[in-house]
Amino acid sequence: MPAIVDIRNLSKTYDDGFQALKDVSLEIEEGEILALLGPNGAGKTTLISALCGITTPTGGSASVGGHDILSEYRDARAMIGLVPQEIALEPFEKVWNAVRFSRGLFGKPRDDAFLEKTLRQLSLWDKRQAKVMELSGGMKRRVLIAKALCHEPRVLFLDEPTAGVDVELRRDMWQVVAGLKESGVTIILTTHYIEEAEAIADRVAVINRGEILLVEEKQALMTRMGRKSLRIDLTEPIEAVPAGVEEYELELAPDGRALTYTYDTSAERTGITRLLQRLSEKGVALKDLQTKQSSLEEIFVSLVKEDAA
Amino acid sequence: MNLTAVRAIYTFEMARFFRTLLQSFISPVISTSLYFVVFGAAIGSRIDQVEGVSYGAFIVPGLIMLTVMTQGISNASFGIYFPKFIGTIFELLSAPVNFLEIVLGYVGAAATKALFIGIVILGTSAFFVDLNIQHPLAMVAFLLLTCISFALFGFIIGIWAGNFEQLQLIPLLVITPLVFLGGSFYSISMLPPVWQTITMFNPVVYLISGFRWSFFGQADVPIGLSLMAIALFTAICLGLIWLIFRTGYRIRS
Questions:
Q1: At residue B17, does pLDDT exceed 90?
Q2: pLDDT recorded at residue A165
Q3: Among residues A86, A22, A91, which one has the least CA distance to residue A54?
Q4: Which residues does chain B have within 8 Å of residue A77's beta carbon, measured at their own beta carbons?
Q5: Which residues of chain A make contact with B253, given a CB cutoff of 8 A?
Q6: What residues of chain A lie within 8 A of the CB of B92, using their CB?
Q7: Residue B252, min C-alpha distance to chain A (Å)
Q8: How many CB atoms lie within 10 A of CB A283?
Q9: What is the Rg, in whole angstroms, of the alpha carbon atoms belonging to chain A?
Q10: What's the pLDDT tens digit per position in A7-27?
Q11: Mean per-residue pLDDT, B170-188
């Protein structure tokens, strides 16, 4: 299946010489949720802006649904919905008029039933006659999403959709995103809440300093890059790691009450059984055991650190 | 041509106007009445006639032009500056529309508002003076062209402006003096010869003169010249707007 968003060697150099995107290539498949992760200033928003027509790329090409974003901008943009990072809404306008405007602007014929469905989906139906300025921050963000959805886009860009949003609303957003995915919409989401990518993304792309560092299935990435650690709590504190278990490179906690063993999840044999056996032979009494899987966040931090080095 | 988008922009902009309809209606009525009290009754009673027309009636075309020009500029400049200021311009830039459609929507709405206010002033004037329009078609054409061309000019100012001060700067520093010195309240022939020559460099003179001709059948400059002046002004504005969108000046990085 051809990619719905096909980015080839896209570059953006600003007038002051700053290179915000360097030869970015990325294929996004129809119906997936791709999380674009990266620290502040990595180029996430520039990439989205270039695809949506807000900034003009200085090199390379990109297409949406097979339509080139520059030469066939009408067809390409008609397929795209964009939810920007900053809340930007006409404050004196009513919610209903705001979404109607967006639908018309994208050239779609009036369809009040669809608008009603969209507003209900985002719990905005009761607020349709309210002026935007009367709404809370979270509600305004929903209006932004409604505006992006009301012209029935096939590809939705969510630029930091949950920045500054409370926990409850964030969970609601995730549900909305899941619902959209079910209806076949392709979603590209930028975030620096890695928890968010972990919760909803199918694939993860990491971008730093204008370059894509990696694109991978979230699960595969977490398995490949993931480290597990086994923490062994001891009944009595010890002064040093006992002899005979050197190959495990155990770490002793400063208070001497715990040993930590870090291992690769993809390794065939972790050697845990033998480690525990040896420790008990040495007379170390075990009180408790816990294992921990490293999160996407730790993977991400180590990737970006490596890139900086 | 994405006409649905043009209509969406036009309707959205007109909604802003209807929200403040009362103000939009009352303020020109009051200011026109004041002009008639001051210029028509107080000063006009001491001026007999200007070129065979009572002074009160003589100032009507100038008064309408003065308001229509400033309204066209302020409506259009604000209309496009506001989305830039609050950030909603992103939606226009990411929409499947071209510059012509954006301009049609914004300038069309701004020109409609200016036209509405022009008609209100004309109606108000009828309460104060006897008006008899000799060339009604030419009058409508001049009025429409002025609304459109000054709305185009306002659109350019709105794109160029980086803050609210700049938004006011051109209308205040350039347009108001040009309009006042363009014969709104007097005939060019009333000026000393040197000033008559200088005045001919003021483009607004041609518009007001042409518009006054459509009312009273007499003008400071030939009517053909007036038509050419407004056509040229419209063409320059359109060219500038085309360049703006071509280069993305101040809107697309």
A1: no
A2: 73
A3: A86
A4: 94-96
A5: 14, 54-56
A6: 105
A7: 6
A8: 9
A9: 25
A10: 999 999 998 999 999 999 999
A11: 86
The DSSP secondary-structure symbol of B154 reads H
Q: How many CB pairs lie under 8 A apart between chains A and B?
A: 82
Q: Check residue B57 and give its pLDDT.
A: 87
| Helix (H) or strand (E) segment spanning residue A130 | none
- Beta pairing partners, A187: A33, A156
B35: tokens are 């002009």
* Helices marked H in chain A: 44-52, 73-78, 95-105, 112-121, 137-149, 167-182, 194-200, 218-225, 272-281, 296-308
Over residues B40-45, the mean pLDDT reads: 77
Find the DSSP H helices in B20-98: 21-35, 55-86, 89-94
In A, minimum Cα distance to B246 occurs at A56
A5: confidence class by pLDDT, cuts 50, 70, 90 = very high
The residue that leads in pLDDT, A80 or B29, is: A80
Residue type, B144: L
Burial of A3 (0-12, 13-18, 19+ CB in 10 A): middle
Which pLDDT score is estimated for A292?
82
Contact B253 A101 (CB under 8 A): no
Per residue in A226-284, pLDDT tens? 678 889 999 888 888 888 888 888 888 898 899 999 887 666 778 888 888 888 888 88
A residues 11-30 lying closer than 8 A (beta carbon) to B: 14
Sketch out chain A's domains with CATH numbers. Answer: 5-223 (3.40.50.300), 227-293 (3.30.70.1560)
Candidate from A55, A102, A106 with C-beta closest to B252: A55
A73/B96 CB distance under 8 A: yes
Residues of B whose CB is below 8 A from A105: 5, 8-9, 91-92, 95, 97
Residue A1: pLDDT over 70: no
Closest CA of chain B from A269, distance in Å: 53
**Which residue in chain A has the smallest CA separation from B79?**
A90
